[in-house]
Amino acid sequence: MIPAAFYAPMKPPDHPVPSGDRAMARALLTALQMCDVKADVASLLQTRDGTGDAQVQAEKQTAASVEIDTLIPKGRQAGWRFWITYHNYYKAPDLIGPAVARALNIPYLLVEATRARKRLSGPWADYAQAAEAASDAATVMFYLTARDEEALRDYAATGQKLIHLRPFLPREDLPLVGRKERSMLSVGMFRKGDKLASYRIIADTLAKLQTPDWRLEIAGDGPVRAEVEALFAPFGDKVALLGALSAQGLQDAYARAAILFWPGVNEAFGMTYLEAQAAGMAVVAQDRPGVRDVLAPGADYPSPEAGSDALAARLDMLLEMPKLTMHLGAAARAHIGTHHLLSAAKATLETAIDEILI
C-alpha cells in the first residue's frame, strides 16, 4: 500500500461529536484505502477558532510548530508519498501540512478548501493568510461544489490542478429501501446559527400546511434543544423529536420516512441529503449553492426568496401525491448510486494519485 499522511484540522475522523465534517473525513479515509493508500492520521490538532480570537490563533500556531517538528521525522520513517488535508479554510486552516510536505518534498493535496480573501484583514487575518498559503501550496485541489470551484479557479496557483470530487457516502452499495410511511424527516444538530435558522423555516412551513394528515420526525440534539422544542411545541404529537440517533437508528429513520425536509441554510452540501436520497427519499429543500450540487435533478427546489410558502406548497403536493413522491425518491436513489458512492470517489482519487506519483 502507498503510505501517506491525512489531516483534518476542523475535526479529526475520531472526534466524538457526529457531524457532516466528521462523516466526510471518515469517508475520505475509506476511499483512500480502496485506492491502496495507507493513510496515517498525522495529527489530531484542531485549529478552529470560531470567534476571531488572536490569542487562540497564536496558541494554535505554536502547537502546530511543535507538531511539525515531530511529524517531519515521523513522515520520513513512514515513507509518506503525499499529504492530503480535508477542509482548509479561514477559521480552521491547515497550519501543519504545507511545512511537513515541503520538508519531505512530497505532493500536498487539499480536499474542500475554500478561499476567503476578504478575511485577510480583520480578526481572522493571520488564519486567513495561513489558509491562503496552504491553498497556494497544493499540487492538487479537490473541490466538492461549484461554488467552491469559482474562487479556487480565480486564485489558483501556477500549475495547480483542480479536480471535481463529488461528495460521497462511505459505502459501495445502496441501503435497502424500507416500507415508506406517509411521513417526513428532518436531520440536523440543534445548534445556533444556520442549523437553528433551518429549524425556524421548518416550523414556519409546517404552520402553513393545508394537508391535515402529516407527521414529522426530527433526528438531532444539541445545545439549543430547548429552543427547538419551543419551535415545535405548537404542533403537539405531529412532531416527534427523536434525539441523537445511532448510525443504525438514523438509517431506520431514513428507511421509514418518505420525504426529507431540510431547507439547508448555508450548508456546504449536506451529508443528510446524500443519506436520505440513497434510502429512496424525496427531498424538499431550498435551491441553495452547495445543496444543489448533491440533489437529484428533475425535482422542484424552491428558492430561498420564495420562503416558507413555497416549501409548504411543495410539501402539500408530495403528501397528497404519494406516487410522485415514490417516483422522485427512486430517481434520487439512482442518482446517488451513480454519482455519490465510493466507486465514483475511488475513480476520481485514484486517477489523481496515480498522476502525482508518476
From TrEMBL:
Keyword Lipoprotein: no
Source species, domain of life: Bacteria
Swiss-Prot/TrEMBL keywords: Transferase
Occurrences of domain Glycosyl transferase family (ranges): 204-334
InterPro entries named among the record's database cross-references: Glyco_trans_1 (IPR001296), Glycosyltransferase_grp1 (IPR050194)
Name of one Pfam family that matches: Glycos_transf_1
Example GO molecular function: glycosyltransferase activity
Protein name: Glycosyltransferase, putative
Species assigned in the record: Roseobacter denitrificans (strain ATCC 33942 / OCh 114)
